[in-house]
Sequence to fold (361 residues):
Amino acid sequence: MITQRLNYKSGDQLSARSILIWRIVQTAVWLVGAVILTCLLFYPTLGVLLYWNILIPVAPALFVLAVGVWRNVCPLATTTLLPRHLGFSQRRKLSVKQLGMLNLAAVIALFVIVPLRHALFNNNGVATGIMIIAMAVIGVTMSFFFEWKSAWCSSLCPIHPVEKLYGGNVLFKVPNAHCDNCMKCVTPCPDSTQNVHPKSSVKTDHQKISAFLIIGGLPGFIWGWFHVPDETQLTSISAFFSVYEMPLIGLAVTLTIYAVLSSIIQQRYERKLISFFAASGVSCYYWFRIPSLFGFGKFATDGLLVNLRDVMPGWSITAITVATTAFFFYWLVAHKKNKKSWLIRPEFGNKDKPLVQKLSA
Fold:
């Protein structure tokens, strides 16, 4: 049984039928996630292929075009929001300072975890599965105390900073299939703010630092990450930490460039600068990721999905990467902002007098 508010004022809001459809989709995607997690733990070679070489490569493009769809169906979000859906959450509101600290922690977690793919996760399905379980436990625990998406999905999740950077000009928005009412748990709400970006919610020094790091540092971090091979056998502590060298060098370079540019450009061009760095980050990702998926990567089988080196000419892969780069720069930088949010905001709710109706699956 799931509680869901059905008294909506706008035709854009979810009907009872739409709620049921979204619940079915969420359940189906959650089951797919459960299968992938099971494979990671018990059939690690298959699990690594499904998670790191199929699911994850799709995510950045989805964030650019329709991050709201992912926010509705993400298996980890569905899991962490169960206490709120089932009425077990204490529904506390985070302070501005707490929210800022979690935002910064999410960016730091991203920059710590991603290089560990080379050292551990890319070749160890069990370790990847344990990491996912740990995140779920943290998210569920936080959801027992805090309102809706405030503590995990919109704060501590390491993927959320990337969502905010890439999701500044989504192709379309969809209804919010989790929040039955808007309780203003995060202000401004990333789901409901038009053309949201990392600086949209800067209120504290922690948020200012996190926005600075993700905007300026991510493109160079991605570039550096793709210049590190996967470690199949770590023989020393120094080898373990060596996976951080190139990503951090790249981060420092583009962070410096961003700092210089942001200090000299006029305020009215700041949004365009953020979009340029967002396009640089996602374009750099696919510039390296697409070749590696199909056997044209820098490091042989690292990140390989299917080897097409003997089937496709090298120029075809180059053409694809050039096309994706052109698209992302067009869509994020040149294309006029369409004034869309990720999700349609539900009507505002009253915490003291919730109007709910039970919906049977």
About this structure: The two ends are 7 Å apart (CA to CA). The beta strands are 2-4, 174-175, 343-344, 357-359. The chain is about 60% helix and 5% strand.
